[in-house]
Amino acid sequence: MKLLTCFVCSFFILSMSPILSQTNYEESKVPSFEVPDPLLTFSGYKINSAKNWEKVRRPELLRFFENDIYGKIPKSLKIDSYTILEQDNNVLNGKAKRKQVELTFKNNGKTLSYTILLYLPKNKVKAPVFLGYNFYGNHTITEDKAVIISSAWANNNESFGIKNNTLTEESRGKRTNRWAVEKILDAGYGLATIYYGEVDPDKNDFSDGIHSLLYQQGQNQPKPAEWGSIAAWSWGMVRALDYFEKDPDIDASKVIAFGHSRLGKTSLWAGATDKRFAGVISNNSGCGGAALSKRKFGETISVINERFPHWFCDNFNQYGDHEEALPVDQHQLLALIAPRPLYVASAEEDQWADPRGEFLSAHYATQVYNLYGKKGIETMEMPKVNEPIHNTVSYHIRTGKHDVTDYDWENYIKWANTFVK
Ligand code: GCU
Known about the structure:
There is one protein chain. The protein has helices at residues 2-22, 50-70, 181-186, 229-244, 262-273, 301-307, 330-335, 355-371, 406-419; strands at residues 81-91, 96-107, 110-121, 127-134, 190-195, 250-260, 279-283, 342-347, 393-398. It is α/β, with parallel strands linked by helices. Strands 1-2-3-5-4-6-7-8-9 form a nine-stranded mixed beta sheet, with helices on both faces. α4 (229-244) packs across α5 (262-273). The chain is globular, with a radius of gyration of 21 Å. The structure holds alpha-D-glucopyranuronic acid. Residues 261-262, 286-287, 299, 304, 352 line the site of alpha-D-glucopyranuronic acid.
């Protein structure tokens, strides 16, 4: 078995080697580049008020990220119906209410449904909520036997017992380490989570998921400026927020979009596109998320587009190995969230996601927060590991690898208590 694992590992490393050998992990090899000024319009006009930011600069940046990076949603689609599949007002040792709510969408003769798992503090009238996707099904975030197993397509994963692209009982509770449910509830927040594969299966195939409901006649994949999977997943978070506005147990004005890694890219885009999100958390989101693309450190645009061709819109391909041609960078995505609270978090061993690029991005976004009189990451000096900076824009780098830990959640809760609640 050991031998086999080694063989599999070395095969994986060898097959990855062209990418790995090109990957830059040296600060001295970061090319010199110009950081696009968030406050200078594409036509050279300097923005100096929050009003002009909102009127002129924010819309043009949003349009650029829409057309050239994440892709536009072809048209709006509302919730057709929602069903409370299950509810118990006394779970987790009396701490919480649990609800499993299915949202259904219909168009083009097709139907798509996805299920939100909600744990809400039992004795709270309207709870603020952290909303975030999970990678392997709602039943992985808890040992709770009542959580329904999704029948949506999933990436095979031996250690999670996922075979034939089907989620199974074997993975119940396998990801409890990433979801500090009790800490969240004890702090007076609810947690809402969705299996991302129900909104759009994470594969380079646009025949399924939400995309297929919005095609024009004869279309079978998004046009070059139309949405990839990240925009589709963000859309799913936005529609969940529509539902929260109807749920009397939730304070929809206090919903924080949370996401890890590809789902952190997703929470950032959701927060940028919908101002109703009260705050946004990017946990180790890296390339195409919080990290600056122009630094070319760790994962790069060409590599991400090659390995995950379905995540971004096709227009994004033109910037692979041509980062200098990009008139924007990811700090401007972060700035689109201003003045709402934003938390960018990195991990020391997650060099692939470029922690320094994530930090600098939060720093460069701060000037937009300053227009609103809000504090962010004012310094260009990275804090030491496990020494968070908490302001409206917050940042930490913790010890350890690419992951979500209790340390991360403890800090998100502290920040939310001060800046969101
Ligand atoms: C890969 C990918 C990253 C992504 C990560 C994840 O490592 O290269 O961009 O963030 O997967 O989502 O786990």
